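A further point concerns the way the authors explain their paired sequence and structure data. For illustration, here is how one protein appears when written out as sequence plus structure tokens:
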Amino acid sequence: VQLVESGGGLAQAGGSLRLSCAASGSFSMLNVMAWYRQAPRKQREFVAGISRDGTANYANSVEGRSTISRDNIKDTMYLQMNSLKPEDTAVYYCNARPLLNYALTDFGNWGRGTQVTVSA
């Protein structure tokens, strides 16, 4: 499985960013796709995830201001983040896994990450 993130960058607080993850590989390994993030000196944490049928889950920290989606034809996942906050600053990683078990933060396949920096 190969996962390539794009769309990160610098944004001001209150602004928006859209992250994309292009995936390729085994059909079953792409059943569930998710975004995780890791801020400096912090552990990697779940941000949002979506199963193949479109069922979405969000971390409390982003729910209500983020939307995750996926295009199963293109095997691409997106994360639209609005009302950005400085605490959203982190490296965002695309993840793909066969099972819905977001609590396992080291499970599945990972992209290299894309940096998101939100200035106050």
Observations:
- The mean pLDDT is 96.
- The two ends are 36 Å apart (CA to CA).
- The CA atoms of residues 31 and 53 lie 9 Å apart.
